[in-house]
Write a structure and sequence with these properties.
The chain is of the alpha+beta class and 257 residues long. It is 21% helix and 33% strand. Strands 1, 3, 4, 6, 9 and 11 form a six-stranded antiparallel beta sheet that branches. A five-stranded antiparallel beta sheet has the order 2-5-10-7-8, with no helix packed on it.
């Protein structure tokens, strides 16, 4: 009876350890920019002016326009320039296992000093075209794509449009990217884009997060919980085997004449 109870307890403990859901995992590094721009990369179209810079205080980093303070901590990242330009801020991340939920969230400030937002048709991040191009985009795309690419596979998370408020405070944005991630497992690029050829346009970014939850696979590192469950199961099985061996030996000794 004791052996049976011990075996059942061992199987239940092993199954619970292996099947327990993983905790949500933060994928990005330095999403609050409190370590400067560490973990992030920038690209600026040749021939333009400006870039993404670390922002602290209430003035934009180049032109000194009035902007809100960082909504989280003391720093944010903000694009600014003295002339037309196209500016990209991105971070690459990896998700190898199917997720039950992956949420992208961030706080966004827009300071459009022109009178309108404008997105050309066909859409492009090229500021030098002979058409108004005054826009903000947030996309998730493949790491193999050109930083300025608008071709698939690409998931557009945010797009400025004519009629939007020209200047805002920091606005929290949250987007479920689970389907896109699960359909394109591997390496991804989270990209913040700002293009301006009409007037100054600041894009402020803070509190950036990609939070993934899964009950199977690796996100983004091998699951220490799953490994612990396998190890525990092995330990319990060996313990059961030792217990049964001991019982058999005692039974054999007891049956001797």
């Amino acid at each position: 009876m004791k052996r049976k109870a011990f075996c059942i307890a061992a199987m239940i403990a092993a199954a619970a350890a292996i099947n327990a859901p993983l905790q949500a995992a933060e994928i990005l590094l330095n999403g609050g920019f409190e370590s400067g721009l560490s973990g992030w990369q920038r690209a600026d179209q040749l021939g333009g002016d400006g870039t993404f810079a670390l922002q602290t205080g209430l003035l934009s980093p180049v032109n000194g326009d009035s902007v809100p303070g960082a909504p989280q901590g003391t720093n944010s990242a903000m694009s600014d320039g003295g002339g037309p330009g196209s500016h990209i801020l991105w971070q690459d991340f990896t998700i190898l296992g199917v997720t039950t939920q992956t949420i992208l969230s961030f706080d966004l400030f827009i300071g459009n000093r022109a009178q309108v937002f404008a997105t050309p048709n066909p859409p492009t991040l090229d500021f030098s075209i002979n058409a108004p191009n005054q826009q903000v985009r947030v996309d998730v795309l493949s790491v193999t794509a050109d930083p300025f690419s608008l071709t698939a596979p690409l998931l557009n998370v945010y797009q400025s449009n004519p009629g939007n408020a020209l200047v805002t405070g920091y606005v929290p944005v949250s987007f479920d990217i689970t389907s896109f991630v699960n359909a394109n497992l591997g390496q991804f690029r989270l990209r913040f884009s700002e293009v301006d050829n009409l007037a100054e346009l600041q894009l402020g970014v803070d509190a950036v997060s990609v939070n993934a939850t899964s009950t199977a696979g690796t996100i983004p590192e091998p699951s220490t919980l799953l490994l612990a469950g396998v190890l525990l199961a092995g330990m319990l099985i060996r313990s059961v085997q030792r217990e049964l061996t001991t019982v058999r030996r005692r039974s054999s000794v007891g049956s001797l004449p």
